[in-house]
């Protein structure tokens, strides 16, 4: 293997950090080329028909889907930290694009395309800004059950939305439930040739995916559809076809750049970044884990940003990490980011020289491809796992799905964020806590709920609060202290809080704790602390901290053992405890 780095000592690390793909190419091993070439061609065979199909979801001409499938791969190959991830059109992203641009465009196709380019470029800028701001942690912002629920809702919307194209009936409804009702109302209006061709291609696609998963089955189905249209003149029998696809490179056209819609698109671009990055980086992490290496989430933000800017400059729509194409790359043994360049090159050749046959793709074939892709988006496995692990989180996931189906795609993004915040606050605001006691034969103090045989000291309660103390859980802390004191069989004289789990405390919590201290003092109960971290004081003014130490320091102990010793040595007439 050639390990020589032709960059200087100063430039090399910078290149490796900013452009991991370029660093990989500088030390490329020739033995990797054959698997990379095979994987790249296989990815292209999947990505091209998917790109064309997803252009239908985004509401743009087929060639836009091709641009969006080709050029982002080149950008990600340079800036991405994953050696397996393939970027490109994504079903959920395309649905968000259509939902956000439709009302703004007002039925004007040119304005729609101009807005789409704006949205794509804004998404790219959001991504890169977030990357340089080191906001890669946003990948963990949406909980997995809630993200699963959102994507499941998107999958159902997509599948129902494709029924009219698959079966050949006219559809006027736009929302999920009316569309579903429309399907049953118009059972007698299905177009028989479209119905037969669509269901046949759908069945063939499902069978091939199951029996020969390594073959580019989407491409096979599209080619079969083209052949049937040409051989049987199906376009003359009322079966809708794609129509002509312009060959050649995209032309840069920003003459219709609509500044009046800029503000309206900001929220949509932010929503796309949140949802698409979370799902995309999960894919990248999953395949990196399988291949035993780590990815850099902040670098992935930059890479996704570069991919979207490349798509926008090519007049394409927003893109993200594509799980199906990444899985093909991994299955074919792709070694490096060169796979993306090979795939882009193969699709570019089709765009330049082979667009003629694409005009005869039956739209029912594209509908079949989209429906199968959307079905793959629906995560039955995660729902089953949640059923076994946590029924509460399962209900959150299902609730998110129902919210997306009833409220719509864009409100669904907001619902997803709100539910994630709700779940986070719910979990953190009601943390685990424990009354502690001694267990014979085990050092330290332990939760008496875990060890019923644990012994406690009459009049003393050792209490551990397993969370930070901040404004939204301070009342819960006070309520738990009151409840524990009330539940004790013997009168409580001291309650010592084990603060070893507390890493953050804010002013609101301190005020409420002081109120509790006064309340307990009126009952003759001392509120004391043990194992308080010095780092808690760093967020407060030095003079205030000194005064507080002077006032309450005698009831703050380094260890629980020290607190127990002070309690045992106390003067019941009210003298101060001995220092540790």
General description of the model:
Helices cover 61% and strands 6% of the residues. The chain is of the alpha/beta class. It folds into 2 domains: 11-425, no CATH class; 431-568, Transcription Regulator spoIIAA (2-Layer Sandwich), CATH 3.30.750. A 6-stranded mixed β-sheet has the order 4-3-5-6-7-8. The radius of gyration is 30 Å and the shape is elongated. The protein starts with 10 loop residues before the first helix and ends in a 12-residue tail after the last helix. The relative contact order is 0.13. Residues 1-11 have low confidence and may be disordered.
SSE topology sketch:
Layout: H1 11-18, H2 20-26, H3 33-58, H4 62-79, E1 87-88, H5 91-105, H6 109-132, H7 144-161, H8 163-167, H9 176-185, H10 192-211, H11 217-232, H12 262-290, H13 297-313, E2 320-321, H14 323-331, H15 338-353, H16 363-377, H17 380-389, H18 391-407, H19 409-429, E3 433-439, E4 442-447, E5 460-465, H20 474-487, E6 494-498, H21 507-522, E7 526-530, H22 542-552, E8 556-557, H23 560-568
Parallel strand pairs: 5-6, 6-7, 7-8
Antiparallel strand pairs: 1-2, 3-4, 3-5
Supply database-style keywords:
580 residues; alpha/beta; Transcription Regulator spoIIAA; 2 domains; six-stranded mixed β-sheet; two-stranded antiparallel ribbon; 61% helix; 6% strand; elongated; disordered N terminus
């Amino acid at each position: 293997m050639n390990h020589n780095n032709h960059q200087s000592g100063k430039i090399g690390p910078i290149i490796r950090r900013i452009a991991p793909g370029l660093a990989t190419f500088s030390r490329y091993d020739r033995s990797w080329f054959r698997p990379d070439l095979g994987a790249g061609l296989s990815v292209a065979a999947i990505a091209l028909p998917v790109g064309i199909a997803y252009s239908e979801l985004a509401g743009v001409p087929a060639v836009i889907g091709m641009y969006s499938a080709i050029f982002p791969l080149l950008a990600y190959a340079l800036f991405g930290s994953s050696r397996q991830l393939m970027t490109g059109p994504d079903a959920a992203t395309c649905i968000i694009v259509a939902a956000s641009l439709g009302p703004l465009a007002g039925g004007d196709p040119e304005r729609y395309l101009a807005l789409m380019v704006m949205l794509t470029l804004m998404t790219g800028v959001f991504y890169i800004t977030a990357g340089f701001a080191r906001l890669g942690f946003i990948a963990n912002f949406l909980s997995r059950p809630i993200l699963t629920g959102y994507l499941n809702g998107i999958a159902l919307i997509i599948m129902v939305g494709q029924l009219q194209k698959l079966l050949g009936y006219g559809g006027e409804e736009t929302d999920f439930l009316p569309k579903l009702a429309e399907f049953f109302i118009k059972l007698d209006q299905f177009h028989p040739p479209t119905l037969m061709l669509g269901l046949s291609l759908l069945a063939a696609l499902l069978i091939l995916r199951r029996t020969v998963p390594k073959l580019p089955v989407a491409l096979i189905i599209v080619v079969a559809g083209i052949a049937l249209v040409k051989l049987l003149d199906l376009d003359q029998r009322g079966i809708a076809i794609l129509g002509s696809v312009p060959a050649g490179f995209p032309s840069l056209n920003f003459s219709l750049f609509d500044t009046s819609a800029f503000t309206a698109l900001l929220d949509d671009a932010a929503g796309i970044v949140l949802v698409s990055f979370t799902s995309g980086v999960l894919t990248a992490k999953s395949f990196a884990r399988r291949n035993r290496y780590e990815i850099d989430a902040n670098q992935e933000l930059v890479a996704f940003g570069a991919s979207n800017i490349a798509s926008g400059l090519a007049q394409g729509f927003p893109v993200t990490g594509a799980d199906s194409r990444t899985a093909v790359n991994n299955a074919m043994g792709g070694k490096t980011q060169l796979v993306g360049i090979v795939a882009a090159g193969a699709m570019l050749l089709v765009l330049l020289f082979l667009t003629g046959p694409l005009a005869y793709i039956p739209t029912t074939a594209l509908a079949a491809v989209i429906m199968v892709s959307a079905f793959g988006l629906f995560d039955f496995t995660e729902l089953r796992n949640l059923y076994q692990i946590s029924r509460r989180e399962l209900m959150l996931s299902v609730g998110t799905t129902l919210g997306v189906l009833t409220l719509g795609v864009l409100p669904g993004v907001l619902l997803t964020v709100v539910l994630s915040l709700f779940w986070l606050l719910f979990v953190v605001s009601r943390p685990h806590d424990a009354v502690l006691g001694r267990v014979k034969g085990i050092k330290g103090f332990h939760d008496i709920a875990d060890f019923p045989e644990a012994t406690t000291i009459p009049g003393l309660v050792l209490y551990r609060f397993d969370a930070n103390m901040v404004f939204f859980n301070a009342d819960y802390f006070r309520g738990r202290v009151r409840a524990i004191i009330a539940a004790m069989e013997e009168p409580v004289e001291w309650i010592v809080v084990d603060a070893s789990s507390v890493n953050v405390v804010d002013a609101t919590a301190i005020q409420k704790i002081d109120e509790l201290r006064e309340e307990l003092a009126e009952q003759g109960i001392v509120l004391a602390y043990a194992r308080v971290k010095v780092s808690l004081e760093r967020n407060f003014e030095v003079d205030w901290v000194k005064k507080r130490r002077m006032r309450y320091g005698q009831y703050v102990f380094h260890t629980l053992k020290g607190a127990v010793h002070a309690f045992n040595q106390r003067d019941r007439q009210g003298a101060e405890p001995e220092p540790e």
